[in-house]
Specification:
Radius of gyration: 48 Å
Number of strands: 18
Largest sheet: 5 strands, antiparallel
Number of helices: 18
Distance between the termini: 99 Å
Shape: elongated
Structural class: alpha/beta
Strand order of the largest sheet: 10-11-12-14-13
């Protein structure tokens, strides 16, 4: 076996050895320096044994500092591997089960570059090494045994570099995570014992190969068929989306409403009546919507009028009108899509909340503002002013939620509706007993008892005082004027609004300090485009 350095350097290493053994290899690499005659010693060694890896043409290759570091690491590695004679030479590197120092020695590329020719066996097994295989070790081309089993090595193994290790007879790479090599490359491993590649991941598994072949024969055609089917479905879906995109901005298709209501599920069904289902839905932009679906069949002409009416409704924008988002006029059904409001109806509010007069006037002024907006800009649009059809938002803003397109719609008719609403908001229908004749009987009863029996007409829950009674009297007076046909013709909408605002301000001026959330300058709120 070739000497580690050269016989002439043995005396130097004998002196160096106690120092090396008393310090770590890292400390020695940092602190030790080559002796003065190190250059001549290395040169002489190359002249006597040119086959040494740090020699070239009988001259040292590389820097002397690097060669010196190689000698320091070699001395440490020889002792760590428990070789019997570390002065002359050593034949094995054995760091199995040494996970704390094994990665360090593998990182010394300068050592593996000049790997001693005497090394015949290298063992780095059972060290939990990670990452790719350390190819620097393969510079020890004379090695006969190489063991890197029981580690966590991964990636591609450098199969092509094994060709230079002509003396290698034992190669153990079992229990690692290498990438499976090609079938042609796997032939290289036949010169070694197959048990040394157990669970290494390198050797192609015959059973796995059969499964892959079966997949290519059966699975691949099946996948192509599924892909073609998916592409056809995607094209059909894109066609539907294209059709939807060409629809007017406010037009909804049946498929869009199905998505919004989870397939018209029972959980989304909020109400049901003759021919009408009311759903709560969520539109594409996340907006909650009230979707009224009409299942009755109508003629083509009626459907055309339905669309024309909806085209008007989507243009209405006012804080006291429920917003209409759009409509659906597919073959299967027709529907109106409007904003969802979580508030309660005016009818429930009057019955269960017992609001004070000032709060009732706040609501009436809001309804009047919505009426003025429609009267001035959309006179063809009628509306329902029954207490069951007016919704109160969470901040008690009244919302007109029912619209009509009737040839009999007129300003006089709308003022009559508002007059009835005024009477219902102020009086106590409950203590009037059973009134025959419906709305007409109710109006006649008010006329018979006003103003003589005013206090018997008023709702006691509005906290009646002398000022309140006078304001309530004025509201009933306006209501009766709106209902009276001869007076109705003379009344202007702006005049009704002005008188109502004066009563509203007077009531709030006399009200308690806690009326703040309902008060304010209602003139400022009369903005039609809000």
């Amino acid at each position: 076996m070739a000497p580690l350095l050269l016989p002439m350097a043995a005396a130097f290493l004998l002196l160096l050895l106690p120092v090396i053994l008393s310090a770590t290899v890292v400390d020695d690499l940092r602190n030790l320096r080559p002796p003065p005659d190190f250059n001549s010693t290395i040169t002489g060694n190359c002249l006597r044994n040119p086959s040494l890896r740090y020699c070239g043409n009988s001259r040292p290759l590389g820097g002397l500092d690097e060669i010196f570091k190689f000698t320091v690491v070699a001395s440490h590695l020889c002792n760590e591997s428990r070789n019997p004679n570390c002065v002359e030479s050593f034949d094995k590197i054995d760091l199995r089960g040494r996970p704390k120092i094994a990665p360090l020695y593998l990182s010394f590329d300068f050592f593996w570059k000049y790997c001693p020719l005497s090394i015949q066996s290298i063992d780095f097994s059972n060290n939990s090494l990670r990452g790719e295989f350390p190819t620097g070790v393969l510079a020890c081309a004379q090695v006969r045994a190489l063991d890197f089993s029981h580690n966590e090595l991964s990636g591609d193994f450098p199969v092509e570099m094994l060709a230079s290790l002509v003396n290698l007879t034992v190669l153990n790479l079992s229990y690692n995570h290498f990438s499976e090599c090609k079938l042609s490359e796997s032939l290289v491993f036949r010169r070694f014992n197959s048990s040394n590649f157990v669970h290494s991941g390198l050797i192609p598994n015959k059973q796995s190969f059969a499964v892959k072949a079966m997949f290519l024969m059966i699975g691949l055609p099946l996948m192509v068929i599924l892909l073609v089917g998916f592409m056809a479905m995607l094209c059909f879906r894109r066609r539907n989306l294209s059709l939807e995109s060409r629809q007017p901005r406010h037009h909804f298709t049946t498929s869009m409403l199905k998505v919004a209501t989870s397939g018209f599920s029972r959980e989304n069904l909020e109400g049901k009546s003759d021919g009408v289902d009311i759903y709560r839905g969520i539109l594409r932009d996340g907006t909650q919507a009230r979707i009224e679906i009409y299942w009755s069949d109508i003629s083509t002409e009626s459907m055309r009028k339905f669309v024309e009416e909806c085209e008007v409704l989507v243009q209405l924008h006012h804080k006291n009108l429920v917003r209409v988002f759009g409509w659906c006029n597919d073959r299967e059904m027709r529907a109106i899509v409007m904003e969802w409001t979580d508030g309660e109806s005016l009818e429930i509010w009057l019955t269960e909340r017992a609001p004070q007069l000032k709060h009732r006037l706040t609501v009436l002024v809001g309804v009047m503002e919505g009426m003025c907006y429609l009267h001035e800009l959309w006179p063809q649009v009628g509306y329902d002013l029954r207490t069951s059809s007016i919704i109160l938002s969470r901040n008690l803003e009244p919302l007109i939620s029912r619209f009509e397109f009737d040839s009999r719609n007129s300003i006089s008719k709308n003022k009559h509706k508002f007059g009835v609403l005024l009477l219902e908001m102020i009086t106590d229908i409950g203590k009037m007993g059973d009134i025959e004749g419906g709305e007409a009987g109710f109006i006649e009863y008010i006329r018979m008892n006003f103003p003589a029996n005013l206090q018997n007409l008023l709702d006691e829950r509005i906290m009646i005082g002398s000022a309140t009674i006078e304001q309530a009297r004025q509201v009933i007076e306006i209501g009766l004027a709106c209902i009276d046909h001869s007076a109705n013709e003379q009344l202007k909408m702006d005049w009704i609004r002005l008188i109502l605002l004066r009563i509203y301000r007077a009531c709030h001026a006399n009200g308690s300090p806690n009326h703040g959330r309902f008060s304010g300058d209602r003139d400022k709120r009369h903005k039609h485009g809000q």
